[in-house]
UniProtKB/TrEMBL annotation:
This is ADF-H domain-containing protein. It is found in: Cytoplasm, Cytoskeleton. Its main location: cytoplasm. Residues 46-176 form the ADF-H domain. InterPro entries: ADF-H (IPR002108), ADF-H/Gelsolin-like_dom_sf (IPR029006), Twinfilin (IPR028458). Interacts with G-actin; ADP-actin form. Belongs to the actin-binding proteins ADF family. Twinfilin subfamily. Keywords: Actin-binding, Cytoplasm, Cytoskeleton, Repeat. GO terms for molecular function: actin filament binding; actin monomer binding. GO terms for cellular component: actin filament; cytoplasm. Residues 358-389 are annotated as: Disordered. SMART domains: ADF. It comes from Tricholomella constricta.
Amino acid sequence: MNSQGIRLTRVRLGHGQRTRSLGLVQRTRRDHAAFSLRPIMSATSGITVASHLASVFANANISSQVRFIKVSITNESLTHDLTIPVSGTFEDDLRLLQSPDVLEDTIPAYLLAKVAQSNWITISYVPDSAKVRDKMLYASTRASLLKAMGSTLFTDAIFATSKADLTPEAYASHKRHIAAPKPLSTREKDMADVRAAESGDGYEGSRTRASHLRTGVGFAWAQDLEQAVVQLGQGEACALIVLEVDRATETLTLISTSEINIDILGSALPSSQPCYALFAWPHAYTTPPRREISKSFVFNPVMIYSSGVLTTYLAVKGFLVETSPTAYLAPRKVETSDPRELDEAHLKTELGLDIASVGAQPAAGSSNLAREGDEKKAFARPKGPARKR
């Protein structure tokens, strides 16, 4: 025996075999016995279900006259304590549990409550004034009770710490809590709104009159904005369209449209609210000269926007590239927090136009800036490795 009074038996077993005894693990090797002792933790109490309780529950499951079955732990076994018949609705019968003959103020108990035919709920009644040992014992035995009775029959569970938790009003509050939507953080709500907007575009079939101006996240275009974008693509002058996202109606709306010079582009954009801008800019930085329509996302970092506003604007950024075949957009976008920095030099850098000039040979790798009519060189076969001598 060791210092704790536990008897240890030395057993010689084959290599790799293990034995479990008295909550201890014994490991043995082929030629000698070596003990490695550690406690084995268990989440259950080991309390068994009495056969009489199983029989009572089986009969109550097929009967329509039983409302509650009270279960107690007696002599390390789950035993049947009391059966309460049906006298009214389930909510009305909850008042029967207030009697001291059913539940005591200091003694825990389980209640198997039958709400409807083959529809049960478990009530774990563990009062705050109960002994700590009883609280732990009933908490660790609940899983064994459900497994023995058949967990598929139980559709809900109630945990009560006083009789006040077992009233019709408390049960109604419990059902409202179960039916309420799960709490979400602000970011989770915004992402849920975006997913709902993305799934809002249903199948439209082959309607020939459907608008070709679609966002990727379910936002609609205002009619005046559609016309302005089409005119922007068909025009030849330097022009600007400023638009915003109306979150209330899930619509892209037009703020302003004007023909401006690139020198006053920064002052033409609002600095007090986030917005998108489509800017048509004729220039001669490529060969041949072209008129590009670039997109800009403008926001003010000093102002405090709600996360939903910024999330919405960021979610619809990609739609501008695929706006309309009549309005070709430059493949690069410009994002800024200060509209004043939007000038000709800034656009040249952001759109990759600073590597080319009028009449100059485009840089290597810039296929979109290549000259028309340049002679194409044949593919030069790479040289192989040098031969070994």
